Amino acid sequence: MSDPKPAPTYDLTTLAARAGEEARPNRAPALVEPIYQSTVYAFADLDDLDRAMSGQEPSAFYYRNGTPNAATLERALATLEGTEAALVAGSGMAAISAALLGVLKAGDHVITDARVYGVTYALLAEEFPRLGIEVSFVDACDLNEVEAAFRDTTRVVHVESLTNPLLTVPDVPALARLAHGRGALLSVDNTFASPAMFRPAEHGADLVTHSVSKYLSGHSTAFGGVLCASAELVALARTRLLRLGGTISAFDAWMTMQGLKTLGLRMRAHSGNAQAIADVLVNHPRVKAVYHPGLSDHPQFHLAMDLYPNGFGGMLSADIEDAPRFVKALAGRIPLAPSLADVVTTLSWPWGTSHRPLPEGERRRLGITPNLLRLSIGIEDIGDLLGDFERALDE
């Protein structure tokens, strides 16, 4: 028996690069999944690498293609939305773009609600026509108008479960039946509701998207988007996403998972507080209109009560007399911040932020005026919130 070969002696530069990596000790499993920040992974041999690259075995191999943290988040969100699969992306717009481009080509036609988020509106109104995809904007709450917009080339109907910022409530089950009857898919942006309040796939939606930066993560610390759908539709979207480079970071995926664990608890608090605030604002003389599905004068009140038996989340909007003065009166207590769904209450100004991409005439036609404020109601004590709003309105 020959003597074993002596271990090679390495220079310090080599040792610094490799030390500790050659024999990681076995440890008890971490209660919380670690962050896998590596941008690339090593394989035992060519066969092992080939299985990963061909998709025969789930595996991380390059950051743009996914990370273990992203895969964990995808499994969690598919479970919560009740779909076969999910695809996480670097932003909500990346998720919507990948979802739609996965099933559309030049010559196809999309029907969308005119009330969608401003950047979604810009994507559909400006970018898709450049790709040869035609788009019709309709009132998605008017089923006759939606049906009249169908063409032989219509492939997708896209709506929001609760629209931003006016909280209209499209009839998702009816839209699904209408779309499927014409051979089209129904796409639903479920960001405002979250799966804690509404699961579009249970009502016939084929493509369900979110900005995970909002209620899913819940703390204004993580950024990303997700598509939840069948395995086939997710695979189509994943191909587009990888080519466009819309990858979510491992850290953002990890942070979203931490927020996701309290989604149910947070949404109950958001929803109860928002209903209480809406009930008070609607009776104040300085408030000209309140938009919230839980108010009996909401145009889709009965449909909303049927589809959302557990509440509507934390969003509402209000047309307030002298909105700039109201915002200043809340300074130091309720921040003006152009996003939503934090655990603290925030205000946003749709006219100049989320719906700024829309032409001024279209904003006014939809009811988005300079005095309209969008309120993202947090989970604070309701008595404290009511006091803040009442004092600001009375100043």
From TrEMBL:
Keyword terms of this UniProt record: Aminotransferase, Pyridoxal phosphate, Transferase
Gene Ontology molecular function, alphabetical: cystathionine gamma-lyase activity; pyridoxal phosphate binding; transaminase activity
Pfam families listed in its UniProt record: Cys_Met_Meta_PP
Recorded superkingdom: Bacteria
Keyword Transferase: yes
SUPFAM superfamilies: PLP-dependent transferases (SSF53383)
Residues making up the signal peptide according to the UniProt record: none
GO CC, any one term: cytoplasm
Cofactor(s) needed: pyridoxal 5'-phosphate
Keyword Transferase: yes
Positions bearing N6-(pyridoxal phosphate)lysine: K214
InterPro entries: Cys/Met-Metab_PyrdxlP-dep_enz, PyrdxlP-dep_Trfase, PyrdxlP-dep_Trfase_major, PyrdxlP-dep_Trfase_small
GO biological process: cysteine biosynthetic process via cystathionine; transsulfuration
PANTHER family given in the database record: CYSTATHIONINE GAMMA-LYASE (PTHR11808:SF15), TRANS-SULFURATION ENZYME FAMILY MEMBER (PTHR11808)
Sequence similarity: Belongs to the trans-sulfuration enzymes family.
Name of this protein: Aminotransferase class V-fold PLP-dependent enzyme
Lineage: Bacteria, Thermotogati, Deinococcota, Deinococci, Deinococcales
